[in-house]
Amino acid sequence: MFNAWQPLFYFTKASAIMSDALEAYLHDHLAGAGTAIDLLETISKERAGDPLGQFAGELLVEVKTDRDTLRGLADQVGHGTNGLKEAAAWFAEKVSRLKLNHGSENGLGTLEALEFLALGIQGKLAMWCALSAAQALDPRLQGVDFDYLAERAKSQHEQVEQCRVDVARTVFCGRSKNIKQPREAEAPESAKWEQT
C-alpha cells in the first residue's frame, strides 16, 4: 500500500545522513586547522626575527580566520566542536612539535613541518571546493564565499610551497658534502638560490 509520508521519510533520513557526513567532515577539517595553527605558532616563535618566522606569523592570521569560518559553519550544521577530534589533533601537533624540535639543527624538522602545512592547505582547498559544490543544495552553507576561500587557499599553498622548496635547498644542499655546489657563473638559473 502506498504511504504518502514515505517519500518525506526517505528525504528526512537522507538529510540526516548527509548532515552527519557534513558534520563529521567539518570536524575533521577543524581538527586539522587546530594542528596547523599550533604548528605555525611554534614556527613563528622558534624562528622569530627571520623571514620564515615572519611568514609563519602572517600565515597564522589567515589560517585562524579560515578556522573561525569553519567553526561558524560547524556551529550552523550542528554540534560546533568535537572534543575527541580536537584532542587527537592536539596530540598530533605535539608529536609534530617534537619532530620539529628534533630536526632543528639541520632544518629537516622545519622542512617536514612545511610539507605538512602544504598538504593541509591542499586539503583545505579541496574542502572549500566540495562545500561550494554542496552549497546550492544545503541552506546551512549559504552566505559563505567559498570561491574566495578557495583562492586564498591557493595563494597560501603557493607561498608555503615556495618556502618549503627554499628550505629543502638549504637542508639537502647546504649540509651535504657529496653535492657539488654550482659556481655562480656556470649555474643555470634553476639551480641558483639565495644562500643564508
Q: Major β-sheet, in short? A: none
Q: Which shape, going by the Cα principal axes?
A: elongated
Poorly predicted parts: 5-18, 176-196
Strand proportion: under 5%
Amino-to-carboxy terminus distance: 78 Å
Task: Summarize model confidence as the mean pLDDT.
Answer: 77
Supply Rg: 22 Å
Oligomer: single chain
**Tally of separate domains:** 1
Helix segment tally: 5
Class based on secondary structure composition and strand pairing: mainly alpha
Count all strands and give the number. 0
| Helix proportion range | over 70%
SSE order, as H and E?
HHHHH
Question: Please, could you describe this protein's structure?
Answer:
There is one protein chain. The chain is mainly alpha-helical. The chain has one domain. It is 74% helix and 0% strand. It has helices spanning 6-46, 51-77, 83-102, 108-135, 146-175. The longest helix is centred in the first third of the chain and has 41 residues, at 6-46. The protein is elongated.
Which descriptors would you attach to this protein?
5 helices, 196 residues, mainly alpha, disordered C terminus
